[in-house]
Amino acid sequence: MMELFYGLITGILFGFLLQKGRVLRYDKQIAALRLQDMTIVKFMLSHIIVAMVGVYFLYDMGLVKLSLKPTILGGVIIGGILFGLGWGLLGYCPGTSLGALGEGRWDAIWGITGMLVGAGIYAEAYPYLQKTVLTWGDYGKITIPQVLGVNHWLIIVLFVVMTGFLFRWLEKKGL
Amino acid sequence: MKVDKGWNPYLAGALSGLVSIGSIWYAGKYFGASTTFVRTTGMMEKIFSPERVASMPYFIKEVPMVDWQWMFVIGIAIGAFVASISSGSFRFQAVPAMWQEKFGSSIAPRAVVAFIGGIFAMFGARLAEGCPSGHGLSGSLQLAVSGFIALACFFIGGLITANWLYKGGGKQ
Hints:
The structure holds 2 protein chains of 2 kinds. Chain A is mainly alpha-helical. Chain A has one domain (2-172). Chain A contains 8 helices and no strands. Chain A has helices at 2-20, 26-33, 39-60, 73-90, 94-102, 108-131, 144-148, 152-173. In chain A, helix 3 packs antiparallel against helix 8 (152-173) and helix 5 packs antiparallel against helix 6. Chain B is mainly α. Chain B folds into 2 domains: 1-91, no CATH class; 94-172, no CATH class. In chain B, helix 8 crosses helix 9. The radius of gyration of chain B is 19 Å and the shape is globular. The two termini of chain B are 22 Å apart. Chains A and B meet through helix 1, helix 2, helix 3, helix 4 and helix 5 of A and helix 1, helix 2, helix 4, helix 5 and helix 6 of B.
Protein backbone atom coordinates (compact mmCIF):
# COMPACT_ATOMS: atom_id res chain seq x y z
CA MET A 1 0.00 0.00 0.00
CA MET A 2 2.84 2.37 0.92
CA GLU A 3 4.47 1.45 -2.38
CA LEU A 4 1.41 2.61 -4.36
CA PHE A 5 1.38 5.88 -2.43
CA TYR A 6 5.07 6.48 -3.20
CA GLY A 7 4.35 5.79 -6.85
CA LEU A 8 1.58 8.35 -6.95
CA ILE A 9 3.62 11.07 -5.19
CA THR A 10 6.68 10.44 -7.36
CA GLY A 11 4.51 10.58 -10.48
CA ILE A 12 2.90 13.86 -9.41
CA LEU A 13 6.31 15.48 -8.82
CA PHE A 14 7.65 14.16 -12.12
CA GLY A 15 4.54 15.21 -14.06
CA PHE A 16 4.70 18.67 -12.48
CA LEU A 17 8.33 19.13 -13.61
CA LEU A 18 7.67 17.67 -17.08
CA GLN A 19 4.91 20.22 -17.54
CA LYS A 20 7.00 23.12 -16.16
CA GLY A 21 9.84 22.13 -18.47
CA ARG A 22 7.33 22.17 -21.38
CA VAL A 23 8.48 18.76 -22.55
CA LEU A 24 5.03 17.15 -22.67
CA ARG A 25 3.93 18.96 -25.82
CA TYR A 26 3.65 17.33 -29.20
CA ASP A 27 5.25 20.45 -30.69
CA LYS A 28 8.33 20.08 -28.45
CA GLN A 29 8.77 16.36 -29.05
CA ILE A 30 8.40 16.63 -32.81
CA ALA A 31 10.56 19.79 -32.93
CA ALA A 32 13.35 17.75 -31.33
CA LEU A 33 12.93 15.02 -33.95
CA ARG A 34 13.00 17.69 -36.68
CA LEU A 35 16.15 19.10 -35.05
CA GLN A 36 14.56 22.50 -34.47
CA ASP A 37 14.24 22.75 -30.69
CA MET A 38 16.16 20.51 -28.29
CA THR A 39 14.17 21.29 -25.14
CA ILE A 40 13.39 17.62 -24.47
CA VAL A 41 17.03 16.62 -24.99
CA LYS A 42 18.13 19.30 -22.49
CA PHE A 43 15.55 18.06 -19.98
CA MET A 44 16.46 14.38 -20.42
CA LEU A 45 20.22 14.84 -20.25
CA SER A 46 19.94 17.14 -17.21
CA HIS A 47 17.87 14.45 -15.51
CA ILE A 48 20.37 11.77 -16.49
CA ILE A 49 23.54 13.51 -15.29
CA VAL A 50 22.06 14.55 -11.93
CA ALA A 51 20.58 11.12 -11.25
CA MET A 52 23.70 9.34 -12.55
CA VAL A 53 25.97 11.11 -10.08
CA GLY A 54 23.48 10.72 -7.22
CA VAL A 55 22.62 7.08 -7.81
CA TYR A 56 26.23 5.93 -8.27
CA PHE A 57 27.23 7.85 -5.15
CA LEU A 58 24.51 6.05 -3.17
CA TYR A 59 25.45 2.79 -4.88
CA ASP A 60 29.05 3.12 -3.72
CA MET A 61 27.76 3.74 -0.20
CA GLY A 62 25.72 0.53 -0.47
CA LEU A 63 22.42 2.41 -0.11
CA VAL A 64 20.79 1.57 -3.45
CA LYS A 65 20.71 -1.34 -5.87
CA LEU A 66 21.02 -1.04 -9.63
CA SER A 67 18.16 -2.35 -11.73
CA LEU A 68 19.56 -3.04 -15.17
CA LYS A 69 17.63 -4.14 -18.23
CA PRO A 70 19.38 -6.83 -20.26
CA THR A 71 21.14 -5.84 -23.47
CA ILE A 72 19.47 -8.10 -26.03
CA LEU A 73 20.55 -6.53 -29.31
CA GLY A 74 17.67 -8.02 -31.34
CA GLY A 75 15.01 -6.70 -28.97
CA VAL A 76 16.61 -3.39 -28.09
CA ILE A 77 17.56 -2.37 -31.64
CA ILE A 78 14.46 -3.61 -33.50
CA GLY A 79 12.14 -2.60 -30.65
CA GLY A 80 13.90 0.73 -30.21
CA ILE A 81 13.55 1.65 -33.88
CA LEU A 82 9.91 0.50 -33.99
CA PHE A 83 9.25 2.62 -30.92
CA GLY A 84 10.92 5.58 -32.59
CA LEU A 85 8.91 5.20 -35.79
CA GLY A 86 5.73 5.22 -33.73
CA TRP A 87 6.92 8.08 -31.55
CA GLY A 88 7.57 10.26 -34.61
CA LEU A 89 3.95 9.72 -35.68
CA LEU A 90 2.37 10.06 -32.25
CA GLY A 91 4.52 12.86 -30.82
CA TYR A 92 4.15 11.57 -27.26
CA CYS A 93 5.93 8.78 -25.46
CA PRO A 94 4.18 6.48 -22.95
CA GLY A 95 4.91 8.65 -19.91
CA THR A 96 4.36 12.01 -21.57
CA SER A 97 1.08 10.93 -23.19
CA LEU A 98 -0.56 10.89 -19.75
CA GLY A 99 1.09 14.21 -18.90
CA ALA A 100 -0.15 15.74 -22.16
CA LEU A 101 -3.65 14.61 -21.28
CA GLY A 102 -3.19 16.24 -17.87
CA GLU A 103 -2.53 19.62 -19.48
CA GLY A 104 -5.58 19.26 -21.72
CA ARG A 105 -3.95 18.05 -24.94
CA TRP A 106 -6.59 15.42 -25.46
CA ASP A 107 -5.28 14.13 -28.79
CA ALA A 108 -3.10 12.05 -26.46
CA ILE A 109 -6.17 9.83 -25.99
CA TRP A 110 -5.76 8.43 -29.53
CA GLY A 111 -2.16 7.63 -28.75
CA ILE A 112 -2.95 6.07 -25.37
CA THR A 113 -5.62 3.89 -27.02
CA GLY A 114 -3.15 2.89 -29.73
CA MET A 115 -0.54 2.04 -27.11
CA LEU A 116 -2.98 -0.15 -25.17
CA VAL A 117 -3.77 -1.99 -28.43
CA GLY A 118 -0.03 -2.25 -29.17
CA ALA A 119 0.54 -3.78 -25.73
CA GLY A 120 -2.19 -6.35 -26.44
CA ILE A 121 -0.67 -7.26 -29.81
CA TYR A 122 2.74 -7.63 -28.16
CA ALA A 123 1.30 -9.95 -25.53
CA GLU A 124 -0.07 -12.16 -28.34
CA ALA A 125 3.25 -12.13 -30.20
CA TYR A 126 5.41 -12.65 -27.12
CA PRO A 127 5.72 -16.47 -27.18
CA TYR A 128 7.01 -16.26 -30.78
CA LEU A 129 9.32 -13.26 -30.14
CA GLN A 130 10.71 -14.95 -27.04
CA LYS A 131 12.00 -17.79 -29.22
CA THR A 132 13.33 -15.53 -32.00
CA VAL A 133 14.16 -11.80 -31.73
CA LEU A 134 14.66 -11.92 -27.97
CA THR A 135 17.42 -14.53 -28.32
CA TRP A 136 19.46 -12.52 -30.84
CA GLY A 137 22.60 -11.04 -29.33
CA ASP A 138 21.82 -11.47 -25.65
CA TYR A 139 24.67 -9.95 -23.62
CA GLY A 140 22.82 -9.91 -20.30
CA LYS A 141 22.78 -7.04 -17.85
CA ILE A 142 25.86 -5.04 -18.75
CA THR A 143 27.01 -1.48 -18.12
CA ILE A 144 29.49 0.64 -20.07
CA PRO A 145 32.17 0.66 -17.33
CA GLN A 146 31.85 -3.17 -17.03
CA VAL A 147 32.36 -3.63 -20.77
CA LEU A 148 35.36 -1.28 -20.82
CA GLY A 149 36.73 -2.65 -17.56
CA VAL A 150 37.12 0.78 -15.98
CA ASN A 151 35.85 2.50 -12.83
CA HIS A 152 32.35 3.91 -13.26
CA TRP A 153 33.39 7.37 -12.08
CA LEU A 154 35.68 7.72 -15.08
CA ILE A 155 32.72 7.21 -17.40
CA ILE A 156 30.47 9.45 -15.30
CA VAL A 157 32.97 12.34 -15.39
CA LEU A 158 33.45 11.90 -19.15
CA PHE A 159 29.69 11.78 -19.68
CA VAL A 160 29.08 14.91 -17.63
CA VAL A 161 31.84 16.82 -19.46
CA MET A 162 30.58 15.73 -22.89
CA THR A 163 27.02 16.68 -21.95
CA GLY A 164 28.31 20.09 -20.84
CA PHE A 165 29.90 20.65 -24.25
CA LEU A 166 26.73 19.52 -25.99
CA PHE A 167 24.65 21.96 -23.90
CA ARG A 168 27.02 24.81 -24.76
CA TRP A 169 26.82 23.93 -28.44
CA LEU A 170 23.01 23.75 -28.36
CA GLU A 171 22.83 27.18 -26.70
CA LYS A 172 25.25 28.64 -29.23
CA LYS A 173 23.16 27.27 -32.08
CA GLY A 174 19.97 28.56 -30.47
CA LEU A 175 18.41 25.10 -30.44
CA MET B 1 -0.01 38.42 -24.74
CA LYS B 2 2.18 36.78 -22.18
CA VAL B 3 4.44 34.21 -23.78
CA ASP B 4 4.27 30.89 -21.98
CA LYS B 5 7.88 29.86 -21.67
CA GLY B 6 7.74 27.62 -18.63
CA TRP B 7 10.81 26.84 -16.58
CA ASN B 8 14.32 26.50 -17.86
CA PRO B 9 14.48 22.90 -19.18
CA TYR B 10 17.90 22.33 -17.60
CA LEU B 11 16.52 23.28 -14.19
CA ALA B 12 13.31 21.27 -14.55
CA GLY B 13 15.28 18.27 -15.84
CA ALA B 14 17.84 18.49 -13.02
CA LEU B 15 15.07 18.73 -10.39
CA SER B 16 13.38 15.69 -11.93
CA GLY B 17 16.74 13.93 -11.60
CA LEU B 18 16.61 14.65 -7.85
CA VAL B 19 13.07 13.19 -7.72
CA SER B 20 14.45 10.11 -9.45
CA ILE B 21 17.26 9.76 -6.89
CA GLY B 22 14.73 10.11 -4.07
CA SER B 23 12.50 7.43 -5.56
CA ILE B 24 15.38 4.99 -6.02
CA TRP B 25 16.65 5.65 -2.50
CA TYR B 26 13.37 5.57 -0.54
CA ALA B 27 11.27 3.19 -2.60
CA GLY B 28 13.89 1.33 -4.65
CA LYS B 29 11.94 2.24 -7.78
CA TYR B 30 13.37 3.40 -11.08
CA PHE B 31 11.18 5.48 -13.42
CA GLY B 32 9.38 3.66 -16.21
CA ALA B 33 6.03 3.86 -17.95
CA SER B 34 5.43 1.33 -20.69
CA THR B 35 4.82 -1.77 -18.52
CA THR B 36 1.79 0.06 -17.16
CA PHE B 37 0.15 -0.13 -20.60
CA VAL B 38 0.65 -3.91 -20.62
CA ARG B 39 -0.90 -4.25 -17.18
CA THR B 40 -3.83 -2.03 -18.13
CA THR B 41 -4.53 -3.95 -21.34
CA GLY B 42 -4.30 -7.17 -19.33
CA MET B 43 -6.79 -5.87 -16.76
CA MET B 44 -9.23 -4.96 -19.55
CA GLU B 45 -8.82 -8.30 -21.34
CA LYS B 46 -9.34 -10.07 -18.01
CA ILE B 47 -12.90 -8.69 -17.85
CA PHE B 48 -13.79 -10.62 -21.02
CA SER B 49 -11.61 -13.71 -20.84
CA PRO B 50 -9.93 -14.22 -17.47
CA GLU B 51 -8.83 -17.82 -18.18
CA ARG B 52 -7.10 -16.86 -21.39
CA VAL B 53 -5.23 -13.92 -19.78
CA ALA B 54 -4.18 -16.17 -16.90
CA SER B 55 -2.59 -18.58 -19.37
CA MET B 56 -0.74 -16.06 -21.56
CA PRO B 57 3.03 -16.06 -20.92
CA TYR B 58 3.38 -12.27 -21.23
CA PHE B 59 0.63 -11.62 -18.69
CA ILE B 60 2.22 -14.18 -16.39
CA LYS B 61 5.48 -12.20 -16.67
CA GLU B 62 3.79 -8.77 -16.33
CA VAL B 63 0.83 -9.53 -14.07
CA PRO B 64 -2.20 -7.30 -14.83
CA MET B 65 -2.50 -5.34 -11.60
CA VAL B 66 -2.09 -1.86 -10.15
CA ASP B 67 1.50 -1.48 -8.94
CA TRP B 68 4.01 1.28 -8.13
CA GLN B 69 4.55 2.21 -11.77
CA TRP B 70 0.82 2.25 -12.54
CA MET B 71 0.31 4.84 -9.81
CA PHE B 72 3.41 6.71 -11.02
CA VAL B 73 1.93 7.06 -14.52
CA ILE B 74 -1.41 8.27 -13.13
CA GLY B 75 0.57 10.69 -10.97
CA ILE B 76 2.23 12.17 -14.07
CA ALA B 77 -1.21 13.17 -15.40
CA ILE B 78 -2.18 14.73 -12.05
CA GLY B 79 1.14 16.57 -11.68
CA ALA B 80 0.90 17.94 -15.22
CA PHE B 81 -2.67 19.05 -14.56
CA VAL B 82 -1.68 20.89 -11.37
CA ALA B 83 1.34 22.53 -13.04
CA SER B 84 -0.64 23.63 -16.10
CA ILE B 85 -3.49 25.07 -14.04
CA SER B 86 -1.08 26.92 -11.73
CA SER B 87 0.70 28.56 -14.67
CA GLY B 88 -2.41 29.15 -16.79
CA SER B 89 -1.07 26.96 -19.60
CA PHE B 90 -3.84 24.35 -19.44
CA ARG B 91 -5.61 24.17 -22.81
CA PHE B 92 -8.21 21.82 -24.20
CA GLN B 93 -6.60 21.17 -27.53
CA ALA B 94 -7.79 18.63 -30.09
CA VAL B 95 -4.91 19.05 -32.53
CA PRO B 96 -1.37 20.27 -31.72
CA ALA B 97 -0.32 23.65 -33.19
CA MET B 98 2.47 22.25 -35.36
CA TRP B 99 0.18 19.57 -36.75
CA GLN B 100 -2.56 22.11 -37.48
CA GLU B 101 -0.20 24.33 -39.46
CA LYS B 102 0.70 21.49 -41.78
CA PHE B 103 -2.40 19.27 -41.87
CA GLY B 104 -5.28 21.50 -40.76
CA SER B 105 -7.54 21.37 -37.75
CA SER B 106 -9.71 18.34 -38.51
CA ILE B 107 -9.56 15.74 -35.79
CA ALA B 108 -9.79 12.49 -37.77
CA PRO B 109 -6.38 12.55 -39.55
CA ARG B 110 -4.58 13.35 -36.29
CA ALA B 111 -6.52 10.61 -34.49
CA VAL B 112 -5.63 7.97 -37.09
CA VAL B 113 -1.92 8.85 -37.23
CA ALA B 114 -1.65 9.09 -33.43
CA PHE B 115 -3.46 5.75 -32.99
CA ILE B 116 -1.20 3.95 -35.48
CA GLY B 117 1.85 5.64 -33.98
CA GLY B 118 0.75 4.46 -30.55
CA ILE B 119 0.50 0.83 -31.69
CA PHE B 120 4.01 0.86 -33.15
CA ALA B 121 5.47 2.79 -30.22
CA MET B 122 4.14 0.39 -27.59
CA PHE B 123 4.94 -2.78 -29.53
CA GLY B 124 8.48 -1.46 -29.97
CA ALA B 125 8.81 -0.33 -26.37
CA ARG B 126 7.83 -3.78 -25.09
CA LEU B 127 10.17 -5.52 -27.52
CA ALA B 128 12.98 -3.24 -26.35
CA GLU B 129 11.74 -3.75 -22.74
CA GLY B 130 11.48 -0.03 -22.09
CA CYS B 131 10.51 3.42 -23.29
CA PRO B 132 12.24 6.82 -22.98
CA SER B 133 11.62 6.63 -19.20
CA GLY B 134 12.71 3.06 -18.52
CA HIS B 135 15.58 2.89 -21.00
CA GLY B 136 16.24 6.52 -21.83
CA LEU B 137 16.34 7.91 -18.29
CA SER B 138 16.65 4.97 -15.88
CA GLY B 139 18.86 2.85 -18.13
CA SER B 140 21.19 5.64 -19.16
CA LEU B 141 21.64 7.02 -15.65
CA GLN B 142 22.84 3.56 -14.58
CA LEU B 143 25.22 3.52 -17.57
CA ALA B 144 23.42 0.45 -18.92
CA VAL B 145 24.51 -0.47 -22.44
CA SER B 146 20.86 -1.28 -23.27
CA GLY B 147 19.77 2.22 -22.20
CA PHE B 148 22.09 4.07 -24.56
CA ILE B 149 21.44 1.76 -27.54
CA ALA B 150 17.69 2.08 -27.00
CA LEU B 151 17.88 5.87 -26.69
CA ALA B 152 19.84 6.12 -29.96
CA CYS B 153 17.33 3.83 -31.73
CA PHE B 154 14.35 5.81 -30.38
CA PHE B 155 15.76 8.98 -31.93
CA ILE B 156 16.74 7.30 -35.21
CA GLY B 157 13.20 5.92 -35.66
CA GLY B 158 11.65 9.21 -34.60
CA LEU B 159 13.83 11.25 -36.97
CA ILE B 160 12.65 9.06 -39.85
CA THR B 161 8.89 9.35 -39.34
CA ALA B 162 8.77 12.95 -38.03
CA ASN B 163 10.79 14.23 -40.98
CA TRP B 164 8.85 12.07 -43.42
CA LEU B 165 5.56 13.44 -42.05
CA TYR B 166 6.75 17.05 -42.23
CA LYS B 167 8.81 16.82 -45.40
CA GLY B 168 8.68 19.84 -47.65
CA GLY B 169 8.78 22.37 -44.86
CA GLY B 170 5.93 23.52 -42.69
CA LYS B 171 6.97 25.65 -39.74
CA GLN B 172 10.67 26.46 -39.81
